[in-house]
Amino acid sequence: MSGTTRSSSASTLVGELELEFNPQGTLAERIRAGGAGIYGFFTKTGAGTVVADGKEQRVVNGETFVLETGLVADVSLVKAWKADTEGNLIYRKTARNFNPNMATAGRITVAEVEELVEPGSLAP
After folding, report:
1. First vs last C-alpha separation in the chain
2. I need a labelling partner for 109 at 20 to 30 A (CA). Which of 17, 58, 59, 95 fits?
3. What share of the chain is helix, strand, coil (3-state, %, to 5)?
4. Residue 90: strand pairing partners
5. In whole angstroms, what is the distance from residue 56 CA to residue 39 CA?
6. Given CA atoms 111, 113, 119, 124 in this order, what sign does their dihedral have?
7. Residue 4 class from Cβ within 10 Å (0-12 exposed, 13-18 middle, 19+ buried)?
8. 64-110: per-residue pLDDT in tens?
9. Quick one: pLDDT at residue 2?
10. Which phi and psi (to 5°) does residue 73 adopt?
11. CA distances (Å), origin 109, targets 36, 46, 53, 88
12. At residue 52, what are phi and psi to the nearest 5 degrees?
């Protein structure tokens, strides 16, 4: 391209960002529910706080419950200790906290593993 100059300008992202607050236990249960195909569940956690704003609420036996919906991700990124080539994963230590549920809640799951083995090599 002799004789032509090209300038690159920084592009800006225009749009909205939606932010939702969840207590950690509720977040974990929403991920688990999404992976299990459960639409939602009612919980007392967050009732009467900003967490409940705009959400369906029900009063049962005089107590308020908030509807929380299951979360499903387009892509889940997880870390596992060992896996076989069929996609079975074994988690160790703190990787057992959220990774197993995140793996089930993703439409596509990408796993980083330390050791990859052949099918049948993992203990049942």
Report:
1. 62
2. 17
3. 20, 35, 45
4. 82
5. 13
6. negative
7. exposed
8. 999 999 999 999 999 999 999 999 999 999 999 999 999 999 999 99
9. 46
10. -100, 150
11. 15, 30, 32, 12
12. -90, -10
- Whole-prediction pTM value? 0.79
Residue pLDDT, tens place only, 18-59:
888 889 999 999 999 999 999 999 999 999 998 899 999 999
- Asked whether the beta carbons of 68 and 58 are under 8 A apart, the reply is no
Burial of 21 (0-12, 13-18, 19+ CB in 10 A): exposed
Residue among 58, 79, 80, 76 nearest 67 (CA): 58
Q: Could you tell me how many residues make up the chain?
A: 124
